[in-house]
Each structure stands twice: as C-alpha cells, then as structure tokens.
Task: inverse folding
C-alpha cells in the first residue's frame, strides 16, 4: 500500500476530537406552510395504471406520464404502487432515471442496499439542511430517486425546495451578489478508518476508504483529484480536500444559471449529528468559505437557510412510493426523525446520471 505524504503538524487523533459544546445555528423552518407547487402537478397515483396484468415497472403509459411530469416540473412522486421490493421500485424509477451514477467521492457514508441503490447515509436524529447532491465535487448528478420501502405515516417526510425561485430571491440580495462574484470553497476532512479501530468513532463523519471506495491512499488521492479536488494529507492519514467553484451552475434545461450550493456543506451540517455535534466548528469535517477565503458570517448563514425554507414543501411518504427529483431545479433535505419502537423508515436512494460541472455561464443570468 502506498503511504501518503504527511503534513508536519501535531496529530489529530480520536482522543483529541473532544471539544466544548458548539452553539447551534438555527434549525431550518423547512417551509412556510404554503407549498410553492401544488402536489397535483407532480403526484401520480399508480393505481390509475394498474390493469392486473402488466407490472407497473413495465407499464408504458405510466412511464410516459412519469417522464412528462419530470420534464415539466423537475419532480415526480408516484404513490399507490403496493411495492415492497427495492428491485422493482428501482425498475419503476428507471422510467426516468435511465442512467445510474456510481456513488464515489461522496461525502455521506452510504452503503449499498441493492446494485446502485444506497442507504440515506445519515442518522435519523440529525436534521439535513436543504442541499444539492454532490455540489462539492466537479462531477455531480442530474437527478435523484427515492424508493420508500418502509414508512411510518406522519413521520419522516422529505422536503424539497423550488430552486428556481430560491435563485431569484437570493440574487436580489447583497449576499447573493457576493456569492455570484466570489463563489465558494468547500473544505472537507476525511478520516482514516485504521486510526479509529477500537474506538466508538466519536468525531467521525466519513472515512476516505468509504468515500473513495479504496484501501489505497494513492488511489483515494487520485479519485479525489479526478473530481476536481485539491488534496493534502494531514496527521493520522487525514485526507483534506478543497474545491473552489461557483455557487451557481448552468442548467441546460432552462438555459439559465441556478443556485447550486447551500449551507449544508458547512460545519452547521453537524449541529444535530450524533458523535460530531459536540465538536467545535474548527474540528468538524466540513467547512464552507467564500471562494476568496473570506468567512461566511452568521447573518449570511441565516440567509442561506432562509432562502430555501421560503420555497420548501414536504413530500409525505407511504410504503412503496417512488419519487425522482431534479438536482438542478430542487434542493432536498429533512428535519430530524424520532421513531418509536416498532416504527420503521427505510428509504433507498438512486443517484442519476453524472454530469461535469461547467459552473455559471456569464451570459445566462
């Protein structure tokens, strides 16, 4: 195994990842109580297409309806499927997600539930700020699929935010113009699994072995650089990456630049994350700054949270539901979830076709 070049600084080992309690940022409000888009515009009842002979995943009329809805809205939610098998649910989602992306280099520690179907990769008690999937690397995904195998009615809704309206609202503020001018820098620290053998993984978000899908440091570094990241190695084989890019991304479907960033990639992501929330901000695994290195102020953090909340809405789940979300036109997130004994929430995630980021184009505002 190739040994990485280490930085000369004091080791940062698991025993040091204990700090004073860090004040939390305000929890997202998630929505105003009024949805920006009527559910009827994107919801399809699969029972309208059940003919008793053709499986839903082979139903051409349902496939056409799903694709038309997704193309028009950027969001489609299929209910009433009666499915409880992730393989069949994946086949239904592939009416829209025709190309899968191999989830490599991602931040969340996801395990595969089925081929190209992943677990959510986040603890239920943690709230997940609105975000665009894989905005922190040079290769992102165009869409996501959510497959709901087990649901508890009234709990565990996923929220989506209308990113077209969020973009317009943020660009009308000085903070939005500052993001437009300077972009963002994503700072990530990926721990080495071997340094945590025999510990309770306190302070761990994701090990580079899991994120980069390799045991070899040289391969991990190469995989990170292939995704546009600057890399260096810290003590205890801590893989440190940085990615400087526009806060916006050109979306060919609307021929315009859209917001493609959120505060989810900052240390506030961990404000309710077990085993990490106790860390002071400077020791947390993620940090977000402006592209010129300037810190984002608490007031700007609040603006970043509020702009998505203003245009958010819940997707309430039932068992067997399948939803596909455009990663350009919508951000997604969820509040903390607390299940009682006997309650279940099992959600599979599909990662759609990859695209190479072009950032914002100068004439597409």
Result:
């Amino acid at each position: 195994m190739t040994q990485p070049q280490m930085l000369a600084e004091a080791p940062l080992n698991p025993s040091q990842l204990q700090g004073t309690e860090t004040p939390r940022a305000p929890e997202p409000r998630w929505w105003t109580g009024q949805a920006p888009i009527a559910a009827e515009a994107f919801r399809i009842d699969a029972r309208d297409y059940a003919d008793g002979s053709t499986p839903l995943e082979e139903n051409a009329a349902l496939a056409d309806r799903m694709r038309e809805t997704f193309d028009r809205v950027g969001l489609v939610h299929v209910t009433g499927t009666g499915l409880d098998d992730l393989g069949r649910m994946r086949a239904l989602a592939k009416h829209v997600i025709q190309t899968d992306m191999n989830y490599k280099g991602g931040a969340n520690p996801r395990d595969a539930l089925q081929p190209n179907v992943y677990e959510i990769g986040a603890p239920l008690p943690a709230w997940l700020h609105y975000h665009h999937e894989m905005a922190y690397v040079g290769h992102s995904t165009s869409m996501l699929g959510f497959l709901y195998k087990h649901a508890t009615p009234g709990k565990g809704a996923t929220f989506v935010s209308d990113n077209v309206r969020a973009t317009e609202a943020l660009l009308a503020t000085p903070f939005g113009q500052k993001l437009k001018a300077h972009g963002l820098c994503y700072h990530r620290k990926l721990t080495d699994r071997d340094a945590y053998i025999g510990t309770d993984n306190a302070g761990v978000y994701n090990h580079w072995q899991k994120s980069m899908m390799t045991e070899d440091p040289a391969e991990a570094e190469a995989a990170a650089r292939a995704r546009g990241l600057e890399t260096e190695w810290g003590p205890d084989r801590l893989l440190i990456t940085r990615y400087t890019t526009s806060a916006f991304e050109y979306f060919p479907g609307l021929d315009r630049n859209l917001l493609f960033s959120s505060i989810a990639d900052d240390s506030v992501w961990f404000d309710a994350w077990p085993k990490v929330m106790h860390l002071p901000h400077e020791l947390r695994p993620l940090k977000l700054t402006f592209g010129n290195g300037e810190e984002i102020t608490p007031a700007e953090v609040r603006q970043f949270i509020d702009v998505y909340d203003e245009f958010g809405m819940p997707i309430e789940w039932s068992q067997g539901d399948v939803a596909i979300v455009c990663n350009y036109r919508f951000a997604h997130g969820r509040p903390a979830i607390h299940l009682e004994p006997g309650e279940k929430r099992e959600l599979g995630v599909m990662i759609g076709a990859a695209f190479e980021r072009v950032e914002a184009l100068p004439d597409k505002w």
In short: The radius of gyration is 20 Å. The chain has seven helices and 19 strands. Helices lie at 60-73, 86-93, 163-171, 174-182, 208-212, 217-226, 298-309. The CA atoms of residues 46 and 288 lie 42 Å apart.
